[in-house]
TrEMBL record:
Residue intervals passing through the bilayer: 21-44, 56-76, 83-101, 107-126, 147-167, 179-199, 219-248, 254-274, 283-303, 309-334, 355-375, 381-399
Organism ancestry: Bacteria, Pseudomonadati, Bacteroidota, Sphingobacteriia, Sphingobacteriales
MF annotations from Gene Ontology: transmembrane transporter activity
Keyword Magnesium applies: no
The protein's name: YQGE family putative transporter
Length: 421
């Protein structure tokens, strides 16, 4: 066992300097991700008891992201990428501070906090995606995302339990708001530490200065369809667990405990899958994630009780990392191929990809709001997730076609290079 561990550590050490710095930066920042993803939504639920406000918060986040992607493209021509990457991490703490400073959770205050959080995600993900793309290649991306997912999932065991029970015990003492403010302060400290680690990297900005295009190769449109289907459920993956648990289980302690069930097993499984699978096996990993998410949504919709929520969370712990582990390498391979074919900056594709995600997020969140407005919050929480989960199953065939066309394009580009030489 010890020899196996040394072998894995040796494999990590054999990676490039930037690979190691980026992984460690994301590892440090991942400590605050459960707080941002889960407990801010829980804070809105605790203080408003209104699921529609949580969805409004999420919609403003998703509106801030594509706007910031555009701003980030312009700023990349003027500032180092690691400075913008760090700004994204620190802004998440600023957004939480804005939320905690509100005396009453009105729509305007929630929207402002949401926009700032969206800017945080925009700066973070735009630069993180480019750095991951430029630091890895098609052969080690499964390993990179398997390693990241391993750390994220382990942290998802510890942080939700610790913070959840800290908030709940503070609430029993009569001061849940103070507990949230303490957590916000800790988030600030961790984001600064992640920024310090980021500055140890030798990261280079995108070379091509032009990022904004309206027309792309038809192959890119297929990936935009896949991105829209991914965006369809993203909002629910972030806010649904918090809303369901606060409504059906009760408190943040239960929220943290439910988040941690089965996470150790999931973490080890993700690492093994990332380390051992080849690029040709990504479609099977992706399909398994889609199926698990559909099962989770159906269980929640049919049962809609405490047991259903726990089972929903359990399936989600496997579904979400499997989907991410397969999706990002598929996306990056398409960007690799098309950036060579069209001779454009990789960031141009990362920026445009966000438009596909945003369309899906609007559709998914809009479905929830319509069901909540015309029927009830219960109908929205039970059936909106089921609707988007079933729709997302079509992603399997879209992804399969993308992988097949990517193989053909790679061969074509390879032959062109040989002919040119």
């Amino acid at each position: 066992m010890l020899n196996k561990l040394k072998l894995e550590i040796g494999h990590f050490k054999s990676q490039s300097h930037n690979f190691k710095v980026l992984t460690l930066t994301n590892l440090i920042y991942s400590i605050v991700l459960p707080v941002i993803d889960i407990f801010v939504a829980a804070y809105v639920m605790r203080n408003s008891n209104d699921p529609t406000k949580v969805v409004v918060y999420q919609l403003t986040i998703y509106t801030g992201i594509p706007i910031t992607f555009l701003i980030n493209g312009w700023l990349l021509n003027r500032f180092p990428i690691k400075l913008l990457f760090s700004l994204g991490m620190v802004l998440s703490g600023v957004s939480m501070a804005i939320m905690m400073s509100l005396n009453t959770l009105d729509i305007t205050g929630i929207a402002v906090a949401g926009i700032v959080m969206g800017m945080s995600f925009g700066f973070y993900w735009a630069n993180r995606d480019f750095l991951a793309l430029s630091t890895t290649d098609n052969n080690n991306r499964n390993y990179y995302y398997g390693l990241e997912t391993f750390f994220y999932t382990i942290i998802a065991v510890l942080i939700p339990v610790a913070i959840g029970w800290f908030i709940e015990l503070s609430a029993r003492g009569g001061d849940a708001k103070l507990a949230y403010r303490i957590v916000t302060g800790i988030v600030f400290v961790i984001t600064v530490l992640a920024s310090v680690m980021c500055f140890k990297g030798k990261f280079i900005n995108p070379v091509n200065k032009k990022f904004f295009y309206l027309k792309f190769d038809p192959f890119w449109n297929k990936l935009l369809v896949l991105a829209s289907l991914k965006g369809l459920v993203q909002g629910f993956l972030v806010t649904a667990p918090a809303m369901l648990i606060m409504l059906l289980l009760g408190q943040e302690g239960a929220l943290g405990t439910a988040q941690s069930i089965g996470a150790v097993f999931a973490a080890i499984l993700m690492y093994i899958i990332g380390r051992k699978t080849s690029p040709s096996q990504r479609i099977y990993v992706f399909g398994t994630g889609l199926l698990l998410f559909a099962v989770a949504a159906l269980i929640n919709g049919i049962l809609y009780n405490a047991t259903g929520v726990v089972l929903f969370m359990l399936f989600l712990l496997l579904a979400k990392p499997l989907l991410d582990l397969a999706y990002f390498p598929i996306q990056f391979r398409v960007i690799d191929l098309l950036s060579k074919k069209e001779k454009r900056s990789e960031f141009a594709y990362i920026l445009n990809h966000e438009a596909g995600l945003y369309l899906g997020r609007l559709t998914g969140a809009g479905t929830f709001l319509l069901l909540a407005y015309y029927f009830s919050n219960e109908v929205a929480l039970r059936y909106a997730i089921m609707i988007v989960a079933v729709l997302q199953l079509s992603s399997f065939w879209v992804a399969k076609g993308i992988i097949r066309q990517g193989d053909e394009m790679e061969k074509s580009l390879h032959h062109q290079v040989i002919h040119h030489e």
